[in-house]
Write a structure and sequence with these properties.
By secondary structure, the chain is an alpha/beta fold. It is about 35% helix and about 15% strand. The radius of gyration is 21 Å and the shape is elongated. The protein has eleven helices and ten strands. Helix 4 packs across helix 11. The strands form two sheets. It has a five-stranded parallel sheet, sandwiched between helices. A five-stranded mixed sheet has the order 8-7-6-9-10, with helices on both faces. Strand 1, helix 1 and strand 2 form a beta-alpha-beta unit.
């Protein structure tokens, strides 16, 4: 049996140290916190910089080892849609479907696949917003007259979670992945506001889709998504179902941001006015499919190996 390669990282900066991924990495690699005074085998050892440290030139210890002849990898798993750092080091790890892989493993680690999700709705929608942006403020102001009867937040705008209980805010850590199933059980659908709303990229592979789009899949919730054009197309490419059988999802094809926004508002208002939307059998089938597909660890493990492990091993062993 061949020896496992060693991956050197700075403490708590890369995906290689995420607690929920430990049992994945240990099957293939030795992960060590780098020590510039220690001797390593250059043939079987690589050094990894997380992409923000690389871009900001704060990866000082990593660069010391690179100057000694160790091969350098950029961890660009987060924001893997962004290709700007490709070819900036010996290898850039940028798995196409990282967000889908990561969220499934993380949510399972948190036990969310064991939650009791039983719809008992008394409100129309769930709207969770953290960071402040012009697009989010625009949506907040437009929906303001109907927010009071729903579950919503806009944390950085000074609006903590309303009409439900939240975990105490943390800048980092698991706060962003904290979920109370009652948020989903008591609301009919999610209004998802993605991270990059105003940029339309012609290449759908460059669309910035975050965990926000995947959360409804993980908690059996229909959704209307205010994001880049092509976000629903990305979701379908992943293997998830959307809800074009009962709402007009052509908003996803509209490149003009203002026109797309108005179409989304139109669909939100229609869903509020017509309580029969999202209770049909086809919707229920799609919700079950999305839930089971999201948590399917066989599929996720295959993606993890094909898009992350295999490229790393191929590079290290080349």
């Amino acid at each position: 049996m061949r020896c496992k390669p060693t991956i050197l990282v700075s403490e708590n900066k890369t995906v290689f140290q995420a607690a929920y991924l430990e049992n994945k990495w240990e099957n293939y690699f030795n992960i060590e916190v780098l020590d510039i005074n220690k001797n390593y085998d250059k043939l079987s050892t690589v050094v990894v910089s997380d992409w923000p440290s690389f871009e900001n030139k704060t990866n000082v210890n990593e660069c010391i080892l690179v100057d000694k002849g160790f091969r350098h990898i950029i961890d660009h798993c987060w924001d893997s849609w962004d290709s700007t750092l490709d070819n900036s080091a010996d290898f850039t790890l940028r798995p196409r479907d990282f967000i889908r892989i990561n969220e499934s493993i993380w949510y399972s680690h948190l036990g969310y696949d064991k939650l009791k999700l039983t719809s008992n709705t008394n409100r129309d929608f769930l709207l969770l917003m953290n960071g402040e942006s012009l697009e989010r403020t625009r949506l907040y102001n437009r929906l303001n007259p109907i927010l009071k009867d729903n579950i919503y937040s806009y944390v950085k705008y000074g609006i903590p979670l309303q009409n439900a209980q939240d975990k105490e805010f943390e800048q980092e850590g698991e706060w962003q992945r904290y979920i109370d199933p009652s948020w989903y059980n008591s609301t009919r659908f999610s209004i998802v506001v993605e991270s990059v709303e105003s940029i339309f990229r012609r290449d759908s592979d460059d669309i910035n889709v975050s965990e926000k789009t995947l959360k409804p899949c993980a908690f059996k919730h229909p959704s209307i998504i205010w994001g880049q054009a092509g976000t629903l197309l990305w979701q379908k490419r992943q293997g998830f179902e959307t809800f074009d059988h009962c709402i007009d999802e052509t908003y996803d094809t509209i490149k003009d941001e203002n026109l797309r926004f108005e179409k989304i508002i139109e669909q939100i208002n229609l869903c509020i006015a017509d309580k029969s939307i999202f209770i049909d059998p086809i919707t229920q089938q799609k919700l079950e499919h999305n839930y089971n597909y999201f948590y399917n660890q066989e599929i996720v493990s295959t993606l993890f190996k094909e898009q992350i492990v295999d490229p790393l091993l191929e590079f290290i062993e080349s």
